[in-house]
Design goal:
By secondary structure, the protein is of the alpha+beta class. Helices cover 36% and strands 28% of the residues. The strands form 4 sheets. A 7-stranded mixed β-sheet has the order 9-10-11-12-13-8-14, sandwiched between helices. A 6-stranded mixed β-sheet has the order 4-2-3-6-15-7. Strands 16-17-18 form a 3-stranded mixed β-sheet. α1 packs across α2 and α1 packs across α9. The longest helix has 20 residues.
Length: 378
């Protein structure tokens, strides 16, 4: 095996470990929950006493990056004083559940979560995925979107002269990565940026998928790199970006055009499922609310996150805790292993049921905070 083929093999194996389903997901899941495992990246965030709710996270190391940014953003926004974050020593199971905090979040396997108490607690999916079933008739697809949305997009499409381009040129991939994807991720997520490196993108996405651009009056202003699975007929949108990370292209609707035009391309090219990729288990995130307009089905991911959970336990009943729980609705696991949306409320804090969810859910549930915090099982 040559050095080049060895490098490619390693890239494919690493990608399969992190992103594929089937046996790779099962193997990854068993590795993560092996007996005696030490869990790094434990942390606790606090504000001055009485100003906000403290949150502690223990468990699987992906939690702070892939599952909890929205929760911590909402926590910071609700605090008038700065929120301090400190690292905690690595721990083993079952030490993970012993930390005292207003909210304790534990990232673990579904089997481990099922053994934990349910008083003052919820079990959430670690991640969710959003998938659209594609009809070959593009008009059928368009009618799934609200009339106002369709009319607004048609108007913007004419105004900006948006066109859809595809490319198989490796130089275009490098340009997309450096001029669109990287600056967009840096502008959106800062130090919390997470992404696929260029070599992996080239070998595992570009070589096995499609690179698309949205051109505005002949100038490429947005793009997306997708992976295609001919076995399942799935096109997965993986890396997205706008030119130089410029927010102007969000305000103009160019990012929206990426999704609309990808849907049209999927209809015409034999795609049966359009995977909009994953998100955190909170329907209030901006990403989820943006993608919801395309009426996707909410599912568990097919990769190693499929059988991972977040166990959330409330340690104290304070006004700050109640405010945060009302402010952050959850996707949660129901009694049958399906997904539902949970809203909290009490006599003084109406539940945020204005944050609508999507298809594929078993239902919605509003939980009274007085009952929940008194220890009633969920």
């Amino acid at each position: 095996m040559t050095a080049v083929s060895t490098r490619r093999w390693r890239l494919r194996q690493r990608y399969a470990w992190s992103s594929e389903g089937g046996r790779w997901a099962a193997l990854h899941g068993r590795w993560d929950s092996r007996p005696g495992r030490r869990y790094p990246r434990q942390f606790r965030s606090t504000s001055v006493p009485g100003d906000g709710a403290s949150v502690a996270y223990h468990g699987l190391p992906e939690g702070p990056t892939y599952a909890l940014p929205h929760l911590f953003d909402r926590q910071r926004q609700r605090c008038a004083s700065p929120v301090a974050v400190r690292e905690l020593p690595a721990r083993r199971w079952p030490e993970l559940t012993t930390t005292t905090a207003d909210l304790l979040v534990v990232g673990c396997s579904a089997r481990q979560a099922a053994r934990l108490p349910r008083e003052r607690a919820l079990v959430l999916p670690f991640r969710i995925n959003l998938v659209i079933d594609v009809d070959p008739d593009v008009e059928v697809m368009r009618r799934r979107i609200s009339g106002n949305e369709r009319r607004q997009f048609a108007k913007l499409r004419r105004q900006y002269e948006w066109e859809w381009e595809t490319s198989t040129d490796p130089e275009d991939l490098a340009w997309f990565y450096e001029r669109m994807h990287q600056p967009t991720m840096a502008g959106r997520h800062g130090e919390g940026t997470r992404s696929t490196d260029l070599d992996t993108a080239a070998e595992c996405l570009f070589a096995r998928g499609h690179l698309f651009f949205v051109a505005e009056g002949g100038k490429r202003v947005a793009g997306v790199l997708c992976r295609r699975d001919d076995g399942t007929g799935t096109l997965t949108m993986r890396l997205l970006g706008v030119l130089d990370g410029d927010e102007t292209h969000y305000r103009s609707g160019a990012v929206k055009a990426v999704y609309y035009l990808a849907m049209e391309w999927a209809c015409a090219n034999g795609i049966r499922r359009l995977d909009l990729s994953g998100g955190e288990p909170f329907p209030g995130t901006g990403v989820f609310q943006f993608k919801r307009r395309f009426h996707p089905t909410v599912t568990l991911p097919e990769d190693h996150f499929h059988d991972k959970r977040l166990w959330l336990r409330i340690g104290r009943d304070t006004p700050a805790v109640r405010d945060l729980l009302v402010d952050v609705p959850f996707f949660a696991m129901d009694a049958t292993g399906g997904l539902e949306v949970v809203y909290f409320g009490d006599a003084n804090r109406p539940a945020r049921t204005d944050l609508r969810a999507g298809a594929g859910l078993s239902g919605t549930r509003t939980i009274d905070l007085d009952e929940f915090l008194a220890g009633a099982p969920t």
